[in-house]
Amino acid sequence: MKKLQLDFHLRPAQTPWLGLLLCVLGVIAVLWVMTQIDVAKEQKNQLELQEDNIALRIKQRDSKIKAELNASPVSAKVEKIRRDQLLSHAPAFDLLERVWEQNIAFSRLEIATVERDIKMDLEAKSLNDVLLLVDRFEAAPETKHVTLARNSLKIGDPHRPAVAAIEVLWLADRAAPANNASAASTASRVHSASAASGVH
Q1: Residues 138, 112: contact at Cβ < 8 Å?
Q2: pLDDT, tens digit, 9 for 90 and up, residues 47-98
Q3: d(CA 9, CA 158)
Q4: Which ranges of the chain would DSSP assign to H, the alpha helix?
Q5: pTM beyond cutoff 0.85
């Protein structure tokens, strides 16, 4: 068997440039891949942060909308009560003063300013007086609608007065409301009429 002779001092006849170039390219490729991995991780972190911010904004918006929805009915109710408190009974008393006659006695009187509604039970000398009262209500410019709910003669009374129930709806104020003194005077007159037990 022939002996292998190794000469470590012998220079190679050709430098392996191709191998070196491939090694350098391999190192560059590894570094590029690692850089891209870091960039991808950073982008992922940014996207997750943006998603968290968007989710937080949506949650805050939903909470705000829910709070507004929960508060709106209360606020609307409070505002309605405040507006209702500003309404006056003066138009109703003015209308009653205009149409009332001494042969009419109110036994019940209810005034709803919000609905602009007057409900009354009354007694009169005759059914004709009741119908005349209805005509006067209908002739008033601020009257919207008049309903004669019932009318009959009072049984058991020797004078047989007429009893009736009338409902009147009036329009919104067409003129400046009367002052408090006028309204109080009218209310006093209506109260006196309501206190009467009958008309003889």
Answers
A1: no
A2: 888 888 888 888 888 888 787 767 665 566 766 666 666 677 888 888 999 8
A3: 155
A4: 17-86, 90-99, 127-139, 180-195
A5: no
